[in-house]
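forwarding from the other thread:

> can someone predict this with calcium ion?

sure thing
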Amino acid sequence: MKKYWWQDTIIYQVYLRSFQDTNADGIGDLQGVIKRLDYLTWLGVDTLWISPHYDSPMDDNGYDVRDFYKVSPDYGTLDDFKTLVSEAHKRNMKVITDLVLNHTSDEHPWFKAAQDPTHPEHEHYHDFYIWQKPTYTKRGERTLPTRWVSWFGGPVWEYNAALDQYYLHIFSKKMPDLNWRNKTMREALKTMIKWWIDLGVDGFRVDASNHLEKNWDFPDAKPGYEHFSSLPKHHEYLEELGAELFKPNNLLIIGEAGGATKKEALQYAGFDSNEFNLLIQFEHCWADTDSDNTVTSGKWATGPLNLPKIKKSFAHWIDVFKNNGWNTIYWANHDMPRIVSHYGDDQRYHARSAKMLAYALYVLPGTPIVYYGEEIGMTNVDYEHLTDFRDVEVYTEYENFIRRGATHERAMQALRDRSRDNARSPMQWSDEAYAGFSPVSPWMKVNKNAASINVNLQRHQDDSILMTYKDLLALRKAEALAHGEATFIDLDHPKAYCVKTVGKSHTYIVVANFSDATLDYPIEPKLKGYKLFMINVSTIQSTNTLVPYEARIYRKRH
Ligand code: NOJ
Ligand code: CA
């Protein structure tokens, strides 16, 4: 088995805008991350991934980059960034940043030149992006090049009258897609990547990596995702970056590639691939959608939880990367609901179900990514007004729901259940005003439950969610669970989660009830020689009966 530093690390994802404000403008900043480094060390984290810190008009909270070489004034200065890297390194912590390569902001100087025929460098930059001529009907009506649909809803094409051309944007219209077939553009991005490597970053998370190549025949289709997702040629681009920049610098590269197949996964992140080291593919992340109904569809269509789907996905990815690469374990990120609200219960069984989710995941092999606030069981937002939401996606989707006949309340419920803003509310540090995140009203409302769910409180409770995370992360390290062998038991059981993992000195069995009803589950015969190690309830009523969301870890020395 190969040995790289990132196989034994514990990654923590910080959503910069919402982690800690230090200059009283209501926005999280780099100094805020520096301030909390000791907390992260205490928790057991040793790699930090920060969401985009670049200068940006913030249409998509920084995934719309205006200047790759500048730190957003919202977040601080380049000196703050350098301080973050050096302070992290002093603590033996690595720092990886988000690399947004699929698109820029429409306010990026490249796009400004590209879209303006009078700009002196128009010719040079026009081809950095993807343009198509309209077709006109006999009656002179302009039609879109294709009916492809953007990931945020609505068409992927935006018209530019000065050029009489459309540009492609698979996310918001303020995020035009870059043309990766243009070598000069690729070289410009590589120069930029090198510049950040030279500043000392330890790696990157590559945003939207499977979308870099498009089908340049532009066949008509709706939604047409297959024409801008996972096309074979995008591997050539990633391979180029990997061979020239990633591998020679011993970086940790985490690739975001939703929907990857086994073959693709090894192409991205097999040990002998140059592209990535870790892969985020999201297979287990929407195991509770229903068949589409009239007003919502896709991730917005909430359905019953399909636990076998989650277990099978975990088992599948462990298997894919066995021997040939390295697994990555995570519950969620900034694009999903909060995990305790999503797969647990954020009301009656809040703490118990949050701990259950932690037991279930953090005994599995691979490198874990903890999402900020997950360690205290932060929940979905509880917003009453549409204007409380901030995500650009929310507004296009709200319109879609209403157009399809949803009432305002029904649409709001979908947003509260599924929107990305659920996972972007200010970190709950304490029960002070604004949860100790900021002394002023933050850019996005603090969840009302901050007085009862916060770091300060949980730090002083031995059985809190936070202490459970700390214990589990320490256990992972002590037992080298990242390298463990895991076997799922009763994969098809709809409510029981049972997995066995072999660690350094013990074998562990996790058993959990993923439901809000009491579950009879005959676990006793499997426990010969095992001793109870951790529980998320005060006492066990009976070995073969699990109360709602009860979870236990047993272990046996070998
Ligand atoms: C994936 C990121 O995780 C998401 O937040 C962002 O909106 C899109 N890529 C576009 O950059
Ligand atoms: Ca700030």
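Residues 21-23, 25, 27, 29 surround calcium ion (ligand 2) (CB under 6 Å). thats all i got for now
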